[in-house]
């Protein structure tokens, strides 16, 4: 397994299959590239099925054991089932989606080898959901969650970006996953650098503090040093001492809530083990940067190997290294100001930090 100079081994990859989407979420970052979306029809610059599969086969040689397909909305591509089916057997395969196209496809995706799914669900309120997503597809998303559960994809992780418009629905969402078998909740910190609305941001530590009070059990996850909060429904009496000793949790008795909080968080960055691939076939060592994009040329196996090695070798923790504190403010480390290995590619996309999910 390859590691960068900060000792961070790369064990997973995120592959964007398209920048197209049938939603227009106000917080969207498109894997850190900004709003590059065009027509909804298939686009020639997207990696082909063979390109994606070849990339995965090569990085599996380096011990990469998980891949998450994302977008845009990846299920706008009709070949996702084929890509999943042809992914290396040793890789855990997951997908992030808005869920609207899971009915009718979830079963085929599972048959192809899909093991996990994240579904965007920002509020249990139709009007708020419509305002945030710019799409009147609340029922379609809920149907997608049901389809994923029926296809055997439990636990289904619901992604909720937490900012001014959605923060008031956090307690309801926590209760929702605690009371419904097979659901987990991932609260994703909003980043004002993306949408340009700093007034929308909230103090994510307040959410942590509230969950600490509500949770029956708290644990830490190695990736990004994330905290997990286990919450039982009212009236449930679970022996957490026994659970901790056993190391497993019956998710019919408790719901799991996790917070993704990358903003100004060096600990989060120090525990990152991923490399990302844009829909056009560029490698990214960090979600928050676009000055480190590396093209894989014609995507031959040799070119992929060389570019992957270079990308891993040049990975840098964003906060605490690429961005450093000076007089209480985060500024770009002078060491990296003139370092732009992607060349001309870095000037074609927005260079702002972005949301993340798992």
Key terms:
single chain; 358 residues; alpha/beta; TIM Barrel; two-stranded antiparallel sheet; 11 helices
State the CATH superfamily name: Aldolase class I
Oligomer: single chain
Number of domains: 1
- Helix coverage percent: 25-40%
**For the record, what CATH class applies?**
Alpha Beta
Q: N-to-C terminal Cα separation, in Å?
A: 21 Å
Strand segment tally: 14
Strand order of the largest sheet: 7-8-9-6-5-4-3-2-1-10-11-12
Order of SSEs: EHEHEHEHHEHEHHEEHEHEEEHEE
The SS-based structural class is alpha/beta
Beta-strand residue percentage: 15-25%
Overall shape: globular
Largest sheet: 12 strands, mixed
What would your notes on this structure say?
With 358 residues, the protein is an alpha/beta fold. 27% of the residues lie in helices and 19% in strands. It has a single domain, classed as Aldolase class I (TIM Barrel, Alpha-Beta Barrel), CATH 3.20.20.70. It is built from eleven helices and 14 strands. Strands 7-8-9-6-5-4-3-2-1-10-11-12 form a twelve-stranded mixed β-sheet, with helices on one face. The chain is globular and about 55 Å long. The model is unreliable at 342-355 (pLDDT under 50).
């Amino acid at each position: 397994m390859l590691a960068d100079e900060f000792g961070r081994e790369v064990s997973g990859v995120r592959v964007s299959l398209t920048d197209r989407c049938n939603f227009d979420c106000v917080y969207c970052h498109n894997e850190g590239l900004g709003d590059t979306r065009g027509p909804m029809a298939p686009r020639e610059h997207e990696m082909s099925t063979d390109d994606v599969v070849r990339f995965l086969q090569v990085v599996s040689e380096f011990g990469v054991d998980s891949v998450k397909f994302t977008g845009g909305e990846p299920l706008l591509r009709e070949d996702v089932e084929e890509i999943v089916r042809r992914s290396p057997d040793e890789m855990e395969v997951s997908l992030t989606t808005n869920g609207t196209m899971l009915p009718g496809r979830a079963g085929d995706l599972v048959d192809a080898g899909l093991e996990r799914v994240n579904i965007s669900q920002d509020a249990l309120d139709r009007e708020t959901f419509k305002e945030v997503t710019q799409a009147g597809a609340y029922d379609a998303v809920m149907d997608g969650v049901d389809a994923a559960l029926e296809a055997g994809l439990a636990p289904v992780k619901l992604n909720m970006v937490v900012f001014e418009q959605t923060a008031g629905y956090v307690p309801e969402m926590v209760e929702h996953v605690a009371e419904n078998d097979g659901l987990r909740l991932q609260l994703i910190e909003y980043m004002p650098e993306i949408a340009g609305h700093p007034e929308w941001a909230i103090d994510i530590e307040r959410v942590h503090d509230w969950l600490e009070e509500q949770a029956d059990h708290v644990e830490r996850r190695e990736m990004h040093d994330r905290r997990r909060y286990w919450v039982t429904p009212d009236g449930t009496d679970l022996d957490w001492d026994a659970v901790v000793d056993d190391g497993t949790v019956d998710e019919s008795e408790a719901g799991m809530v996790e917070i993704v909080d990358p903003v100004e968080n060096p600990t989060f960055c120090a525990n990152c083990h991923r490399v990302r691939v844009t829909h056009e076939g560029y490698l990214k060592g960090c979600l928050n940067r676009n000055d480190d994009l590396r093209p894989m040329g014609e995507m031959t196996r040799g070119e992929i190997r060389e570019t992957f090695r270079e990308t891993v070798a040049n990975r840098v923790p964003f906060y605490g290294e690429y961005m450093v504190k000076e007089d209480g403010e985060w500024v770009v480390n002078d060491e990296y100001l003139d370092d732009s290995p992607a060349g001309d590619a870095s000037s074609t996309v927005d260079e702002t930090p972005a949301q993340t999910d798992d």
